[in-house]
Amino acid sequence: MSSIRPRRRAAAAAACALLLPVLSGCFSGPTGGAADGGSGDRRLRVAMAFPPAQAMSPYGDDAVLLSRLAVVESLTALDENGTAEPALATSWKRNGDSGWTFELRDADFQDGEPVTAEAVARSLTAAAEAPTAPRVLSDTDIEATARDENTVEITTDGFDPLLPQRLASPSLAILSEAAYGKKGKADPAGHATGPYTLRELDGTATATLERHDGYWGKKAQAPGVDVRFVADGTARANALRAGETDVAEAVPVAQAAVLDEKLVHEVPTARTNSLYLNTAKGVFADAGMRAAARTAVDGQALVDGVYEGRADPARGLLGPALPWAAERRVEPEGRAAPAKRAEVRRADEIVLATYTNRAELAEVAGTLQQQLERAGFTVRQVVRDYAQMEADALDGAYDAFILPRNTLLDTGDPVSYLGSDFTCDGSFNISQLCDKAVDRAVAEAAGIAGTERRQQAEMRAEAEILGRDAVVPLLHERFVQGVAEDVEGVSLDPMERTLITAETRVG
Questions:
Q1: Could you say which residues form the signal peptide (predicted)?
Q2: Which of the four pLDDT bands, split at 50, 70 and 90, describes residue 462?
């Protein structure tokens, strides 16, 4: 705490004083905070940073939201080392180079229908055929068939040693037949398998979850969860301070400094905050301009000035949460020479974009704007709620986009992230990068079964990507979660897949 500067402490405290009256009652409701019995029987109140971007569709980032709220499950899960472990599947084995067999556990969906091999095959097929394929499938195709009631066969279009980890993705959640009412759509509300059922979604404002009493595992400790989606980080922290919420996701660094230390839990993550540059059009279609932007950026200044030391300066795309990365890192070769300052000054205005849901990003954007302008760029900022920006970012509407990405989110192995974000067919390619050498390097890594050899190939792929200056790694984040003193069982997950669990309770 002593490293926090007094100026920031004072500013944060002043913000708290102004906002507390406004927040009073914001986190209460018909059930929010009402006792349902004795200790441990009260509904949970949770303030989430990101509202649903696709009405809780499992095929985009909302899948992670559903996973963090313990609504959906997949065939497998990931342990703390990123290794696949049983979830709806109890065991699996490989059949040749491209086939796998999965045995299912005895479980029911939240609407009472049994989890069968036919249901699993239907869910995986729907995900594979979705209009926008989940990122985890951006570098592979899968085909699932029911062999008998409890056995599923899954084949891939090539050798895929990471399939068990891939199937742990929340985007490949298993849903009942009733979830698929419209072609290309999937509704998880009441049709998933997790310990909590999504009963009601009020747009991007609130969600109501109820305990799934038919859950196959340990019964949820709380009778339900009342969720508020609060993009303002100060508001989330104030709600925690005022006792109006039990869990506040992603507490801003400035607020962590003035909260009671018993409420603050800092978690190292695999999340790298990077500056994605549009390689397809505009100023940064020119490699020299991208190199000029890279040399203008000072990540250490962001760590010190914005994150108050609660982050690590970037050395590449893969940070300290993956200790093997530093040992195997390969330096990029053949980078373009930075454009001269006179050329930069003559370039068109660039649009630097980021979003409001993570409190530090607006300040990161301000600092980066200053750094880029000192190098000669003319910069205009666009900062809005993430739900309003994702589609435009993926369409290449911005010249530069500041985005923290969890490099282990999709498979527990970074090769899926490299494929989705930086290959020609990648489904989350904000940089619009399409380079044959990068595609070859990522494909090589994806096809290696041995862990050490795959990691070495992944670092070669990282070097190819960084060599194009399509992305400038800024820093590696630490996640700060706010949890009330009387709340137990919150998952502080470095992979950010879990938050509320069956074990989470009050008292």
A1: 1-28
A2: very high
475's tokens: 């820093």
Residue 95: name the closest of 158, 165, 153, 163 by CA: 153
CA-based nearest residue to 474, from 363, 333, 347? 363
CA distance 479 to 252: 9
414 plus 286 within the same structural domain: yes
Q: CA–CA separation, 362 vs 433, rounded Å? A: 25
- Each residue of 61-80: pLDDT tens digit? 899 999 999 999 999 999 88
**322 and 361 together in one domain:** yes
Residue 491 has pLDDT above 70, yes or no: yes
* Mean pLDDT confidence for 239-250: 97
User: Is 261 part of a structural domain of the chain?
Assistant: no
Residue recorded with tokens 């050329």: 343
**Integer angstrom CA distances of residue 205 from 55, 230, 236:** 11, 8, 13
- Each residue's pLDDT tens digit, 297-308: 999 999 999 999
* CA-based max dimension of the chain: 70
Task: Give the domain CATH number at 499.
Answer: 3.40.190.10
Token pair in block for residue 425 = 């067919």
SS3 helix, strand, coil % of the chain, rounded to 5?
30, 20, 45
C-alpha closest to that of 274 among 123, 109, 436, 465 = 465
Query: Residue 38 sits in which domain range?
Result: 1-71+194-246+484-507
φ, ψ for residue 481 (rounded to 5)? -105, 145
Question: Quick one: how many helices (H) and strands (E) in the chain?
Answer: 15, 19
Q: In the predicted model, is pLDDT for residue 84 greater than 50?
A: yes
CATH number at residue 383: 3.10.105.10
What is the pLDDT, as a whole number, of residue 464?
A: 98
* Arithmetic mean of pLDDT over the chain: 90
Model pLDDT, residue 40: 55
Cα–Cα distance for residue pair 146/148, rounded to 1 Å: 6
Number of structural domains the chain divides into: 3
Predicted model pTM: 0.76
Q: Is residue 62 part of a domain?
A: yes
Is residue 322 one of the residues assigned to a domain? yes
CA dist., res. 481 & res. 246, Å (int): 11
Give the pLDDT confidence score for residue 495 in this predicted structure: 85
* Burial (0-12, 13-18, 19+ Cβ within 10 Å), 268: middle
- High-pLDDT (> 90) share of the chain, %: 77
Q: Note whether 429 and 302 are same-domain residues.
A: yes
Rounded to 5 degrees, what are φ and ψ at 350? -105, 145
pLDDT confidence of residue 100: 97
Do 357 and 468 sit in the same domain of this protein? yes
